[in-house]
Amino acid sequence: MIEYKHSKKYTEILHKINIYSFQTYFKEEEVMKNMKKFAALVLGTAMIVSMTTGVSAAIETKDDLAGKKIGVQLGTTGDLEASEYEKDGAVVERYSKGAEAIQALKAGQIDCVIIDSQPAQKFVENNDDLKILDEPFVEEEYAICLKKGNDELLKEINGALKELKEDGTIDSIMDNYIGDNIGETPYESPKDADHSKGKLIMATNAEFEPYEYHEGDEVVGIDADIALAICDKLGYELQIDDMEFDAIIAAVNSGKADFGIAGMTITEDRQASVDFTDTYANASQVIIVNK
């Protein structure tokens, strides 16, 4: 076995070499860390740019809807009217509930939501990151639908509506849900109301506050109160059946419901399937966008 003896000078040189190697290693580690940070920064910036370039230009008026993703509630006037923009490259996303369309808007999945003005105001009140455009999308009138040929009930309901308009009941019901005196004028059936003629079944979609919505297990709202006031006038008990909006006309035509009332607008397509009463409310479709 050969034993090597190192001079003091050699030992010092070897020690310096080891220190240099140790320092160099950690400098390389620091460089690698910085390179990784830089790469992550570049990647993140690229993703942000990519996401940003995919976002549509802001919608300021209904003239900006071409090529946009529009959210609507299936079967509503908003759905029917928004479909006209599909020929201009718009994509209409249809949801069972207006609230689902609002969530999609907030998640960036669509560019706007078209819905009736009163529910729109409720959604915006509860979501401070949303706004309603000043320009209405379309004006409309609400009426009650009945099966074609049910002329006797149609005449009765129109007569009741006329009386309820003249005596201020409908205005009072509206004021109880809309405006500065909310909750101050609730409708109550007269103590001497006669419900001996049987029962009328109302088909509705209780996802449309303030016209119809759930309060616990009960369906309440403008339309529910108007329907009750009509039944009080005509001598019927009221039963409310909640269903999808696009199932209401089918329920009326099949006899599962006597009439449908759900903030429903009179359109030519609907008039081909059902009869409508006189109108009981004026409203409008509006456009909701992110701020």
Task: Put the structure in a nutshell.
It contains nine helices and 14 strands. By secondary structure, the chain is of the alpha/beta class. Residues 1-6 and 45-55 have low confidence and may be disordered.
Label this structure with key terms.
disordered N terminus, 291 residues, globular
Description:
The protein is α/β, with parallel strands linked by helices and 291 residues long. It has 9 helices and 14 strands. The strands form 4 sheets. Strands 1, 2, 3, 4, 5 and 14 form a 6-stranded mixed sheet that branches. Strands 11-7-12 form a 3-stranded parallel sheet, sandwiched between helices. The chain has a 3-stranded antiparallel sheet with strand order 8-9-10. Strand 9 (212-215) and strand 10 (218-220) form a beta hairpin. Helix 5 (151-166) packs across helix 7 (222-234) and helix 6 (169-177) runs antiparallel to helix 7 (222-234). The longest helix is centred in the N-terminal third of the chain and has 46 residues, at 8-53. It is globular, with a radius of gyration of 33 Å. 33% of the residues are buried.
Q: Tell me the total number of β-strands.
A: 14
Secondary-structure-derived class: alpha/beta
For this structure, the quaternary state is: single chain
Order of helices and strands: HEHEHEHEEEHHEEEEHEHEHEE
Unreliable stretches = 1-6, 45-55
Radius of gyration: 33 Å
Average pLDDT across residues?
87
How would a textbook summarize the main sheet?
6 strands, mixed
The termini sit apart by 85 Å
By DSSP (H or I, 4+ residues per run), the number of helices equals: 9
> What is the general shape?
globular
Q: Which strand-content bin applies to the residues?
A: 15-25%
